[in-house]
Amino acid sequence: MAGLLPVGNVLGRLMMVFSLAYVVPIAGSFLFHDGKAAEFAWAMLVTMGAGGLLFFATRRHYRELKVRDGFLLVTLSWLLMGAIAALPLNLIYSHLSFTDAFFETISAMTTTGASVLSGLDHAPQSVNLWRHLLQWLGGLGIIVLAVAILPLLGVGGMQLYRAEMPGPMKEAKLTARIADTAKALYLVYAGATLLCMVSLRVAGMSWFDAVCHAFSAVSLGGFSTRDANVAAFDSPAIETVLVVFMFFGAINFGTHYLAWRGRSIRTYLLDSEVRAILVVLVAGCLAMAAFLHSSGSYRDLSTSLRHGIFNTASVALGGGFASVDYTLWPVLAPLLLLFLSSFTASSGSTGSGIKMVRALILLKQGFRELHKLLHPQAAHQVKLGHAPVPNKVVLSVLAFLFLYLASVVGTAFILVATGMDLTHALGAALACINNLGPGLGTLGPAGNYGTLTDLQKWTCMFAMLLGRLEIMSVLVLFTRSFWRK
Amino acid sequence: MKIIILGAGQVGSSAAESLVSEANDITVVDTDAARLADLQERLDLRTVTGNAVSPDILRAAGAEDADLLIAVTQSDQTNLCACRISRTLFNLPMRIARLRATDVMAYPELLNDDNFAVDYAISPEQVVTDYIVKLIEFPGSLQVLEFAGGLVSLVAVRAVEGGLLIGRPLKEIRKHLPKVDARIAAIYRKDSPVTPTADTVIKPDDEVFFLAATRDIRQVMSELRRTDKPVKRVMIAGGGNIGFRVAKALEARYQVKVIETNQARSEWLAEHLSESLVLRGDSTDEKLLEGENIDEMDVFLALTNDDENNIMSSLLAKRRGAGRVMALINRRSYVDLLQAGAIDVALSPALISIGTLLRRVRRGDVAAVHTCRRGAAEALELVAHGDRKSSQVVGRRIRDLPMIEGAHIACIVRRQSPGSGRQHGEPPPADSQVIIPRADTVIEADDHVIVFLVSKRLIPRVEKLFQVGPGYL
């Protein structure tokens, strides 16, 4: 247990920094006079106090973090930040159980966007602001943010960064120092979010809605300030803006940074992940629109196109906004959407799931095996762009895929065992692990997760965390060798 | 500072390790991806895998906006080409190259801007050789570091029972040596520093660092040890790059025996050494050592490129009666383990040669940087520039300078005739005055000031103190 103390020290500092985030909902509360500032201020004090206490109690044990401390710190900090972020929700909604509040915040921070709250349209503005801010913070990662702004993480920063950043190949750094890399990523992220806010305002949202939706769009979260989600706005302009910024969020932020630094759009076109996502997305959207039109779901072609494109893009990229209840479409459509959501996002983006780069590597490895059948003597290397992919990466991708599928099946099994039917269970498992949000049936965009039992909620939370931290970072804590001295 | 290091070998990785902590952006280039992965795992830096002379690789490493290129690959050719390419294509402002072949250095015009464009050539082997030769010239010393172009030396010795100053307070040194000006810069007792004051008493086994004019070194050393008998016979195990150079430098003054395993190499050594005796055999073979009178040897040097071999052969030589044994040990943990134990001096080539490299990276006018005690302490030679207005040190008494805990001014070298148009980096003339400063000594412009620091963390603060303000042109 003594090994936990240095991690506890860093956690204490993280909590103290995290408590600053409460400034946003407190300011929002004063601005909109919703009378909830006291609750958020309390939560802020508790967070800062608890963090300070933890920090001082363990300050003598502070040392440079080791690799295994990194994994522990990342998973623990997500859990702990989720738990303390739930505090103001518990204070404001007295009927809400801790499980429900925790579910809401974990769902927010992992950018899943599955909600147990209803009556969002009339909820205090500060609560909505807080939920959306959590999505934004979770989008690129709280640890990456900490690495960017806290010098304390030092050399161990790279290990932490790797434990949180999604993707199979994380050794490439944009800048010489990890703190600068993290800063660069957050700069791009914040810039895009600001641009999204302004665009949404121009497209017709109120400033409050624009801020909230910008937070949840770039982070691919999918929370909305309305129960009816984006459908409540019924505006093609808003939907267009959201699709553009969700697409931005689903691209590797490293690629964004390089493109911005080189002032060149070519960077995107040279990136095989971006190209693949573009192809899959365009093909998926058009196929969906054609399917909707031919199956007669909508009367005219332009409505089919509008809903086909928006919902396909939103679900495939892992956002989870919906402009209609797509679970009412013929059953092939929502299934196809869930399937697309499991891989249509870049590594190093705010999206989740398998990631396009892994899908590409597996596809190419598949072709390589076929090629080998015909030419047993051929020397053939899997390549991405023009760079060869080392065999050990291919193997790690295979292992990841296995664990991913096992997690989906395992989650679905538990949900079925606790009384859910297969369609709902599978939908929820995929929606949680892919950090998508809306699943199938009553868990779709029109319903919410409030009907689940507590055990089912905890199962879903675990699945969300697995999906956000890319399975390995969490599962490594459950290996025996991790805890062995 | 943005720095590109070419080559992740011994020199490259220790340079990276020393520089990474000081807020530098470092990119290391090497062809060996596994070695780079290991380096990136340990240190916060960026790596690029590829050939160091490829313009594309250099561009990927950030040559376009880098401030300094350190080319320390195994190959002289690569290092020279990389400097030329980075000058021509990227206009990289400062380039340092490692050169094994010392004959190239004899033609400075080859290295100027029209040719290979190398600002500073360093030869780690030569630096290590010079270091070893000095240790032999001063028997009993653990480390001899030169400042101000050789005028002043910092010497580390282990105090031995029987030395005149042992068991007495430091202020008595003046009584023993009325004509010599020396300063005890630091004392390490059981690996922790003791701040030397006038009343500090030196005990046997203390590691004492003192500074004095180079010509006075021998006299001061005799205060701390019984007079060591001068070295006559030296045995060198390993006739590689360093072994050969050391033998070459020593053979005129001492009886030198070189042991080399490789047949072809030993023949080559015999051809190129005139006075030394070259023996073909294994340095861990005790029969060979016995047969060559190891017990008569004043110094045994283990200089092969194999750490374990060096350690074993030195232990063997010590056991068989060799006077002082020194071993070249690359792995730092071994150095800490063995120094002052069975092996008299454990030499870390990386630590020895890194100083020459590091002084180019320092801000302000730094003439020398030396690492003492395996990296625990540092000695800096800085040049004071400017005047009372622009500089924080010039024209001020030492007692009026801001105190930095753990750093103190150990020596000042002042030129006799006021210098005119002194070149950056040029050592002071041989007739300069060596001043051991007191609290009321006033620092003048162009003084070379030698500062001893107990920790390398203090370096930036000392550098800042010596930087001239914006008013000075």
Describe this structure in words.
Chain A is mostly helical and 485 residues long. Chain A has a domain at 391-483. Chain A has helices spanning 4-18, 23-32, 37-57, 67-92, 98-109, 125-140, 142-149, 157-164, 178-202, 207-218, 236-249, 253-262, 266-270, 272-294, 301-316, 332-341, 356-374, 391-417, 422-433, 454-468, 472-475, 480-483, and strands spanning 383-384, 387-388. Chain A has a two-stranded antiparallel sheet with strand order 1-2. In chain A, a hairpin with a 2-residue loop joins strand 1 and strand 2 (387-388). In chain A, helix 14 packs antiparallel against helix 15 (301-316). The relative contact order of chain A is 0.10. Chain B has 473 residues and is an alpha/beta fold. Chain B has 15 helices and 22 strands. Chain B has helices at 10-20, 33-42, 55-60, 76-90, 102-105, 124-137, 173-176, 217-224, 241-250, 263-272, 286-291, 307-319, 332-338, 349-358, 459-466; strands spanning 2-6, 25-30, 46-49, 68-71, 94-98, 120-122, 141-147, 152-158, 182-189, 192-194, 207-213, 233-237, 255-260, 277-280, 299-302, 324-328, 345-347, 366-372, 377-383, 407-414, 433-435, 448-453. In chain B, the strands form four sheets. A six-stranded parallel β-sheet of chain B has the order 3-2-1-4-5-6, with helices on both faces. A six-stranded parallel β-sheet of chain B has the order 14-13-12-15-16-17, sandwiched between helices. Chain B has a five-stranded antiparallel β-sheet with strand order 7-8-11-9-10. Chain B is globular, with a radius of gyration of 23 Å. The model of chain B has no long low-confidence stretch (mean pLDDT 84). The chains are: A mainly alpha (485), B alpha/beta (473). The interface between A and B is medium-sized, with 12 and 14 residues.
Q: Write down the overall mean pLDDT of chain B.
A: 84
Largest sheet of chain B: 6 strands, parallel
- What's the CATH C level of the largest domain in chain B? Alpha Beta
Counted beta strands of chain B: 22
Question: Rounded to an integer, what's the Rg of chain B over CA atoms?
Answer: 23 Å
- The string of secondary-structure elements of chain A, in order, is HHHHHHHHHHHHHHHHHEEHHHHH
Low-confidence stretches of chain A: none
Ends distance of chain B: 22 Å
Anisotropy-based shape of chain B: globular
What count of helical segments of chain A does DSSP give?
A: 22
Described by strand count, sense and barrel closure, the largest sheet of chain A is:
2 strands, antiparallel
Number of domains of chain B: 3
β-sheet strand percentage of chain B: 15-25%
Mean pLDDT of chain A: 88
Q: What is the terminal-to-terminal distance of chain A?
A: 11 Å
Query: Widest sheet of chain B: strand order?
Result: 3-2-1-4-5-6
CATH-level-2 architecture of the largest domain in chain B: 3-Layer(aba) Sandwich
Strand order of the largest sheet of chain A: 1-2
Number of helices of chain B: 15
Q: Structural class of the helices, strands and pairings of chain A?
A: mainly alpha
